[in-house]
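Collaborator request, handled under Task 6.
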Amino acid sequence: MERHGTLVVATDLSPGGARAVDLAVLVARDLDAPIRLVHAADRGPPAAISRDASPAERALRDRLRQRVEAAQRRLEEERQRVARQGVSVVAALLDGRPWEAIVEDADRAGAGMLVIGPHGQGGPAEILRSAALEWLLGVTADRVIRYASCPVLVAPNLGPLTSLRGRTWVVAVDFETPSREALTLAISLARGCDAKVFGVHVLPSLPPLATDAHEGEVAGAAWDPTLEEDEARSQLRAFVAAACAEVPGAPPVEVRVTRGDPADDVVTVAESLGAALLVIGTHGRKGLSHALLGSVAERVLRRAKVPVLSVRPRPA
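Structure tokens returned to the collaborator:
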């Protein structure tokens, strides 16, 4: 199998971080890739202090030093745990704001993929009250996904983790550039993993610009849902064929067209197919206009019970 790039695995040394490490070990075996295990923490100002430093300042420095030493020990324990599983691994303790340090380290390492867990989660107490059963993704994970230049694989908070080899993968397709790149990457990786790929497109439940939803009138013409589904299926097949043409020896890709809410339906289809991986393109929007999670990609990341590979478009 062809080698993939290094898998940079970010762990916050919590149970969620351990799940990310466990997932990375499985993927590293599938892709014949080495692992770079990183933990990021802001260490504060330099450790050296002046002779006239106050007792409070000395106590603070001691606590920071002890925290760093504890993180180094735990990170080394994780590195050894990975090494015992026969995977090539190195570890690094990063300094700085976690999401920035992780993204910068992945860029320096030329990472083929970043693997993270839903950082900061502590269980049912952190379920979103405004959207029942949706897990908070966590600030670090959310920002890594937005800013990383390589694909980001997010481990689910719950459920078993399995090898991706020989399994079913589902790719969400909306016919825009991010989903085209996500589909192409999935096909390329699946070729080496003997995986079966499904391209899934979700149509809205109601007709577009409906003047009378009960009678199904669209701009004065009768709405034919069957015809719309047939057209979407043809467009999806052409979209898939174009992506396959970019990957020599591409495996066959099956297509599914459904109706409903895109995030809900993509997750439901993945569950019905017993998928081991969900792949989705993301626009990588930033700023106040996208400060809260709300896009289809991000809702899938919240709801999926299997790993989700988030793929941003490459710079033009």
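The cover message to the collaborator said: "The CA atoms of residues 226 and 262 lie 18 Å apart. The chain has eight helices and 13 strands. Please let us know whether this matches your experimental observations."
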